[in-house]
Task: inverse folding
């Protein structure tokens, strides 16, 4: 099921009535690097607004959203059509949020842990996530002739959700230097490696030393926009404003970790990365795009 981008914007902007907790089951150029507001615009839905892009139900790592639907039917004891429709909508909301919970539980936090695993082992974290699910946004509500209902809900994987799971201590904000060669960001080609998206991305050299990750990314940028954008095609990655108008492109040679979310670069690619973007703001501000399949 696909939903227009206007619906996805609603995921961020629309208000929604809360659901009781018990109802839940257990994305420029080099100058832009200095302009925080322009950076923010490039990482929201602004690029997609004029593109006709669609977001599918499920985990959409282009926009950093999770979208789930639920069906509801009126109970047999409903007295009026209005009551039946209201109860069906309520049941559909509960089902949609239950499905959303199962969906986000499968998200990889990093190379070894899922959201579900973290929720199972930390009650405080679990309650924070359940609170976000309780207030997840209504993207669409539709009624059928038989008074059954379908509700679509969405959760932003940036902002408060990301704040829960990103390391508390990450790279500090710094002035940085202008990227060598005028590179505005980084594209990593990880196709053919069975690489998977994660909230906490690490790009490593052959010796396991971190080239990009929590120690280099500014936490505020990572929370607000994610550590990277993930695309299924190179054309879409090159068009994404996240990496700017002149991104450096490298290719990963392996995806590692239990969840296959950490990416390894060969020595020649490491040299390219260090020469092109070493110490620049592009990496600290999370101007990273990953291409996977």
Result:
């Amino acid at each position: 099921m696909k939903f227009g981008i206007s619906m996805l914007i609603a995921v961020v902007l629309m208000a929604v009535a809360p659901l009781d907790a018990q109802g839940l089951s257990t994305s420029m150029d080099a100058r832009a690097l200095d302009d925080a507001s322009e950076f923010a615009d490039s990482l929201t839905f602004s690029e997609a607004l004029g593109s006709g892009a669609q977001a599918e139900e499920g985990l959409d790592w282009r926009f950093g959203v999770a979208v789930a639907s639920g069906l509801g039917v009126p109970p047999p004891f409903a007295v009026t059509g209005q009551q039946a429709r209201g109860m069906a909508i309520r049941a559909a909301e509960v089902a949609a949020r239950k499905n959303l919970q199962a969906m986000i539980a499968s998200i990889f936090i990093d190379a070894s842990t899922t959201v579900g695993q973290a929720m199972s082992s930390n009650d405080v974290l679990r309650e924070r996530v359940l609170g976000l699910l309780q207030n997840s946004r209504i993207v669409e509500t539709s009624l059928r002739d038989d008074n059954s209902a379908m509700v679509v809900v969405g959760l932003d994987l940036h902002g408060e959700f990301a704040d829960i799971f990103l390391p508390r201590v990450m790279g500090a904000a710094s002035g940085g230097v202008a990227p060598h060669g005028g590179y505005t960001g980084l594209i990593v080609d990880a196709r053919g490696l069975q690489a998977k998206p994660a909230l906490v991305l690490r790009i490593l050299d052959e010796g396991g030393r971190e080239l990009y990750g929590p120690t280099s990314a500014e936490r505020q940028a990572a929370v607000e926009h994610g550590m990277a954008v993930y695309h299924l095609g190179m054309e879409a990655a090159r068009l994404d404003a996240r990496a700017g108008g002149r991104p450096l492109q490298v290719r990963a040679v392996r995806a590692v970790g239990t969840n296959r979310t950490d990416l390894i670069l060969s020595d020649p690619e490491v040299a390219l990365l260090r020469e092109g973007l070493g110490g620049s703001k592009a990496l600290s501000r999370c101007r990273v795009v990953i291409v996977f399949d």
User: Anything to note?
Assistant: The radius of gyration is 20 Å.
